[in-house]
Amino acid sequence: QVQLVESGGGLVQPGGSLKLSCAASGSFWSINTMGWYRQAPGKERELGATITSGGNTNYAASVKGRFTISRDNAKNTVYLQMDSLKLEDTAVYYCSAEVTSKRWRMENFWGQGTQVTVSS
């Protein structure tokens, strides 16, 4: 089984910055793509950013230029640096990880989420 634990959420003012972390643990052959998704109240979960094991990134248009996703493969950890935060960024942010299990199967896991609130 794989566990994902997010941290770093909190309350910030518009224009402020926040850095989220997500550490993966458990049993698996490798972690393939990791990512951050968010869900605002009353809305569906949406893509924030993803990053492959090789470091290729993909960003939603709404966060491109403001957020930066990165990972430390040795620590099985993915980060999301959030700058120039807006009110619209308020949401629960979920970490995801696509892994190859030790039984050679592709599986996807989700963290419990961390709250990010942008308010003046």
Topology:
Blueprint: E1 2-7, E2 10-12, E3 18-26, E4 30-39, E5 46-51, E6 57-59, E7 67-72, E8 77-82, E9 91-100, E10 106-110, E11 114-118
Parallel strand pairs: 2-11
Antiparallel strand pairs: 1-3, 3-8, 4-5, 4-9, 5-6, 7-8, 9-10, 9-11
Largest sheet: 7 strands, mixed
Give, in order, the helices and strands. Answer: EEEEEEEEEEE
Q: Helical proportion?
A: under 10%
Query: Strand-residue fraction?
Result: over 45%
Distance between the termini: 40 Å
Q: How big is the Rg?
A: 14 Å
Detail the poorly predicted runs: none
Please state the structural category.
mainly beta
Average per-residue pLDDT, rounded, comes to 97
Shape: elongated
Counting DSSP E segments of at least 2 residues, the number of strands comes to 11
Provide a count of the helices.
0
Main features:
single chain; 120 residues; mainly beta; seven-stranded mixed beta sheet; four-stranded antiparallel beta sheet; elongated
Task: Characterise the protein shown here.
This protein is 0% helix and 57% strand. It has no helices and eleven strands. It is elongated and about 50 Å long.
Task: Put the structure in a nutshell.
By secondary structure, the protein is mostly beta strands. The protein has strands at 2-7, 10-12, 18-26, 30-39, 46-51, 57-59, 67-72, 77-82, 91-100, 106-110, 114-118. Strand 5 (46-51) and strand 6 (57-59) form a beta hairpin.
